[in-house]
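Instructor's aside before we start: the two examples that follow are unrelated to each other. I chose them only because their records fit on one page, so don't look for a connection. First example below.
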Amino acid sequence: MKILVVDDSSTMRKIIKKTILLAGADEVVEAEDGLDALKKLKEHDLGFDMIMLDINMPKVDGVTTLKQLKGMENTKHIPVVMCTSEAEKEMVLECIKAGAMDYVVKPFTKELIAQKIAKVSK
C-alpha cells in the first residue's frame, strides 16, 4: 500500500510516516501542502492507495485540497483521511461532506492508523 502524507510540519510528517509504516504500509510519500500534494500525485502517476491530509496548512489548506482532489476525475477515487488537531463537529462534517473517507484527530495511536489503512485495503 502506497500512502501520500500531506502536512506542513516536517516533524508531524515524520511521525505520521513512521506510524503508517509500522501499521503495515509499504511506501509513504511526503508533501508539505496542498500544492505539493498535487505535484506528488502527478510525479507518482496517481499511484496512491490513500492520502492522509492535514487541514491547517499554508498556501492551500486541507479542505480546499480535498475538494480539488474529489473534483478531479483522476483523483476522486483515492480515499482521503483527514489527519488534524481540529476536532470541532462542524469541521468534521465539512470534511466528510467534501469527500473525506475518515477523520483522525492528533495525537493518534498506531492502532488507529492501522484501522484506517485496513478500512481502505478491504
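Example two begins here.
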Amino acid sequence: LGSVPARLATEGSSGGEVSEVQAVSDEVVWAFEPELWLSTDAGWTWMHLPVPGGRGHVVSMAGSTTETYAVVSPCPWQTAGACLRKPYTLWRAATESPGRWRELATKLTPPKGWLDLDAGVTVDGSTVYAFASTSDSEGGEVDNLLEASTDGTHFSARKAPCTTSEAIEASLVQIVATSPRDVALLCEGPPALGSSYKQVFYSTNTAKTDRSTGTPPLGGTGAQLAASSSRNLAVSAASGASFIDINDTKETIWTRMVDERDGGQGWNDVVYVSGLVAWIVHAPATDAYAGAAGQLWVTRDAGRHWTVVSW
C-alpha cells in the first residue's frame, strides 16, 4: 500500500524509528513506538506527529471507528533508571480527528520508588482497558494496575488476576478485548532457563470478575496472547525454539501445536480475526536476527494447524 518514512526501531536505536502498526478504521492507521506516524488513507501516505503530551514515547495504541487511544511513557525510548518511576498516561482522540489528543484520568502510577515494566490498552466498542505493570527497584515484587471504562472516558480500577506471591511474581503483559464485555488477560512470571510461568484469565463482565483458563506450558518466554469472540485462545512464546499453544476447549486444557526448531527466532502480533482464523508473524525482523525470515503464518481451524503464507 505504501511505506512509512521511518526506520525500523531496534536495540540501541537513537530515535526517529517505529516498531508497531495499528489500524483503527479502514482509513486511519498509526505507526508508533517510539515515534508516531499517521496515515488517513489506508497506508498510502504518512505524516509525522508529536507524541501526545509532547514528551516520552508511545508504547501502545488501540481504537475503533469512533475513538483512538494511546498509552504514553514519560521516558525516552529505551530509558532506564529514575525516569521509570513516573506514571504512564492515557490519551484519547476522535478517530475522525486523529492527533487532537485529550488526556484521560487514570491511575497508572507506580507505587513510590517502584519502576514501570510495561503498559497497554485494548478497545472493543466503547469499552476500554488500560494497564501498567510495575516492580520494586530490585525486581522482587510486582504490582499490576488495571483500569476499565465502559463509556470510553470514565475509568475505574479492576483487580488484576495475576499471581503475585513470594513463589510467583507474575506481571500483567497483555489484555485482549473480544466484545464490549468479554476480555482475556495474560500474566507472565520472570524468565528462567528458557521458560516462564504463564497464566491466562477470561472475564465476561468487563474484568469485574474472571476465571482461570489454565496455564500454558512453561517453555518459552516473551509470551503474547490472541483471543477470539468464541473464546479460542492462543499463546506464542520462544526460547531455544518457537512455540504456539492453544486452548479451544473453553476450559483449562492447553495444547502445544507448534514447536518450531528455529533457534528461538520467535513471533510477533498473534491475532484472531474470527473464531477460526488467526495470523502470526514468525521470525520478525530484529537486530538479533538480521536474516530473519519475517514469515506470515495463518490458521483456519482455531490454531490446530498453521501454514506459511505465500506472497
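The mean pLDDT is 90.
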